[in-house]
Write a structure and sequence with these properties.
Layout lengths: L7 H54 L6 H16 L5 E3 L1 H12 L1 E4 L2 E7 L2 E7 L4 H5 L6 E5 L2 E2 L6 H8 L6 E8 L2 E8 L1 E4 L3 E6 L2 E6 L6 H14 L4 E5 L8 H9 L5 E7 L5 E6 L8 E5 L6 H12 L2 E5 L7 E7 L4 E10 L15 E2 L4 H5 L10 H11 L4
Parallel strand pairs: 11-12, 12-15, 15-16, 16-19
Antiparallel strand pairs: 1-18, 2-9, 3-4, 4-5, 5-6, 5-7, 7-8, 10-11, 13-14, 13-18, 17-18
């Protein structure tokens, strides 16, 4: 079959049509792009106009005085609140700095927890074991009356006092306290202080671990204290995550890895559908286990319980959890930061806890009186703890 030749006039016409069509496609694409940009720009202009209008009204009519920086922090916080996600939050520059310190679970200071004002001073409610304060002789319930020569009444508030007590490592602070009717003075050298995140002790032949949070370094502390309980002859384990507000996913996963056989721990997906999975290896502890939860077992805390329950290696005892299914990233801004929900997370079986939480295998609640006196309950008075010990004890030899 012979090839047919296209007349030159026809070829030129086809080339022209292709060029026109291509140009139309390009113009259409560029038009859509600039239309989207224009819509975004117009929306931004409208938003700025509304904000400027409000500022103008405040400046013109407001009878009091206000600080523009504080007002702007309020606007930013309000925007995040308006997004409608209860787990996201805006932090001012000062709040962000304090959050970073608390998340690291360590700081430079003397190792005390200071309450708000108490009877003309500031009460010390906790002295960390092995801290400079404990080594100097400070005791819980001592009331700070002076710090570095400043009387308690001279401090604007609790945070002002904390700023004075904390400082650079190796420097000293002079603290005067009232203990009963006696006044005592201490010169204390500041050093790095580690906040224990896990309380571990034996209750009979059962190892008990109260986990306060999943902050940095808690996984290493957890493993050390877990091994310690096993070395003491623990025949079972109870993990208490009541009033635990959560923490870092990798810290939680490292802790669960010690307790789970080989398999998935948690799967997370972002707004583009990309997923990340944490897994455990085959090495694990095989003792009978229980986890105690309540409605304030949030985020990593309820997920910790959910995964152990889903694998069938632990009995969950207590109250239904709140149901949090999002993970947040702390994203720095030019000033301050936003803790924004950026990931959805799922159990090894692909279950989201969002809005549902977990139902304990043994549902039991504290009385209202015991709930409000939680930190003062004895082991015998804590009926949730007793049920957890019973669940574990029933599986031991």
């Amino acid at each position: 079959m012979k090839n047919k030749k296209i007349p030159l006039s026809t070829a030129v016409m086809l080339m022209f049509l292709v060029m026109v069509t291509t140009a139309n496609i390009c113009v259409l694409g560029v038009g859509e792009f600039y239309s989207a940009k224009l819509d975004s720009t117009q929306r931004t202009e409208v938003d700025y106009k509304r904000l400027n209008e409000l500022i103008s009204v405040v400046d013109r009519y407001y009878v009091g005085e206000y600080d523009m920086e504080s007002a702007m922090d309020g606007i930013l916080a309000g925007f995040i609140e308006g997004v409608g996600d209860r787990w996201s939050a805006y932090y001012t520059a000062e709040e962000y700095e304090q959050l970073l310190i608390s998340n690291e679970n360590s700081y430079v200071g003397i190792g005390v927890t200071i309450s708000t004002e108490y009877n003309g001073g500031y009460m010390i409610t906790e002295v960390i074991s092995g801290s400079p304060a404990q080594n100097a002789g400070i005791q819980p319930f001592d009331v700070i009356t002076e710090a570095d020569g400043r009387a308690a009444s001279d401090f604007e508030d609790y945070s002002d006092l904390v700023d004075v007590v904390r400082g650079e490592e190796g420097t000293s602070v002079n603290i005067k306290v009232r203990r009963d009717s006696e006044f005592l003075t201490f010169d204390i050298t500041r050093s790095a202080v580690f906040n224990p995140g896990v309380e571990a002790r034996m209750i009979g032949d059962i190892g008990y671990m109260q986990i306060d949070g999943f902050d940095r370094n808690v996984d290493a502390e957890f493993e050390e204290k877990l091994r310690g309980l096993i070395n003491k002859g623990a025949k079972g384990l109870v993990f208490d995550v009541r009033f635990n507000g959560g923490g870092y996913v990798d810290v939680m996963s490292n802790m669960l890895d010690l307790l789970l056989p080989e398999g998935a721990i948690i799967t997370m997906s972002d707004n583009k559908g990309e997923t990340t999975e944490y897994r455990s290896d085959e090495s694990c502890i095989t003792l009978p286990m229980a986890v105690i939860t309540n409605e304030y077992s949030i985020s990593a805390a309820e997920f910790f319980a959910a995964v152990l329950q889903e694998y069938g290696v632990a009995t969950v005892v207590g109250d239904r959890t709140i149901g949090k299914g999002y993970a947040q990233n702390l994203i720095p801004l030019s000033e301050g930061a936003v803790n924004l929900s950026v990931l959805k997370y799922y159990t090894p079986k692909g279950v989201s806890l969002a809005g549902t939480g977990i139902t304990p295998d043994v549902e039991i609640s504290l009385s209202d009186e015991d709930f409000y006196n939680f930190y003062y309950l004895t082991d015998e008075q804590d009926i949730q703890l007793q049920k957890a010990l019973e669940a574990v004890g029933g599986q031991t030899n």
